[in-house]
Request: fold
Amino acid sequence: MGRRQRLGEWGETVAVRYLARRGYEVLRRKWRCAAGEVDIVARHNGVLIFVEVRTRSGNDPGMAAESITAAKRARLITLAGMFLESHHLPADTPWRIDIVAIAAGSYGQAVSIEHIPFAVETT
Reply:
């Protein structure tokens, strides 16, 4: 596993812990299908939440959040629909897409964590 992959794995672990401390129930990590992968699937207050985790070295989590392209946003919406369908969930199941952006400092410390609910417009 390369440095970038290790950083991504670490960031997802940090995001899972962060969400759990805030009352989110983490249902799946790294849910995969033919169209791609969702980093985290969670539930909070009756809403299914698909979480894209962006981890970058440095002090600015904003640069991680800004790295989500239009194509990635479209893929996340597709993946959310495929998750709902594959789990036989009703079409009216409430859901959203969030981003958790993490700035990683030295020695495996999160310099900052930014949680952006409703980060991807789904309608």
